[in-house]
Amino acid sequence: xxxxxxxxxxxxxxxxxxxxxxxxxxxxxxxxxxxxxxxxxxxxxxxxxxxxxxxxxxxxxxxxxxxxxxxxxxxxxxxxxxxxxxxxxxxxxxxxxxxxxxxxxxxxxxxxxxxxxxxxxxxxxxxxxxxxxxxxxxxxxxxxxxxxxxxxxxxxxxxxxxxxxxxxxxxxxxxxxxxxxxxxxxxxxxxxxxxxxxxxxxxxxxxxxxxxxxxxxxxxxxxxxxxxxxxxxxxxxxxxxxxxxxxxxxxxxx
Length: 254
Ligand SMILES: Nc1ncnc2c1ncn2[C@@H]1O[C@H](COP(=O)(O)OP(=O)(O)OP(=O)(O)O)[C@@H](O)[C@H]1O
Prior knowledge:
Elements: E1 13-24, E2 27-38, E3 42-46, H1 53-60, E4 68-73, E5 76-77, H2 83-88, E6 91-94, H3 106-114, H4 122-132, H5 134-138, H6 149-161, E7 167-171, H7 179-194, E8 198-202, H8 206-212, E9 215-220, E10 223-228, H9 230-234, H10 239-244
Parallel strand pairs: 3-8, 3-9, 6-7, 7-8
Antiparallel strand pairs: 1-2, 1-4, 4-5, 9-10
The structure holds adenosine-5'-triphosphate.
């Protein structure tokens, strides 16, 4: 995957969440989360169903509006910014289920990823996608719904990368895929990270995400119950309980 990240992206703090709260009516899905991600860093979030992981990604993508707290992208507050401008700020989300438009062709799906761009190098970037993913090139005129699950995941990642993100977020990228396909997806994510793009991954498959991530967070009931390097988290005595969502008496911070 050689679509380049935005050349204006620079080192330093890329994402900063402060006291983030997300409510849906009476449900507090996220209950005060702090998180900082540096440029080029990969962070994994794991945790049981209903922990608030998807809500967190949705808020950073500008889809879910926070009830309290702040989100900054490269120092710029996200509050009040239109959804399309969040993408222009360099944030891309590959949602759970991939959000591929099955009746549109592969090419039409890819073009959707380029809508926020105003530069002239879109055709060259699409050519690069086809060089990196020959199957997408071979099937460019076919409905995307005819692709396999793994191919659709590749298409979703390629489409997100065509917006030239500084931060690529993925919600359950390995869900429903065979292990050899998951290998390919993670190879691609490693390449993307190698280009300096920050990654924020939500994964059921903690082992996969931890192998890639610099840092990890275990989320449960709307808060981070453990944070640290993947190695620190894996050997933490509370990891299994936190990961599987069992009530914890003394889960501290690693
Ligand atoms: N649009 C919504 N309206 C109402 N409640 C919601 C909405 N989205 C999520 N929730 C609730 O918020 C809580 C957190 O959900 P969220 O999907 O963020 O968690 P998750 O950790 O991603 O879980 P999963 O792995 O099951 O997707 C859950 O109780 C969920 O039912």
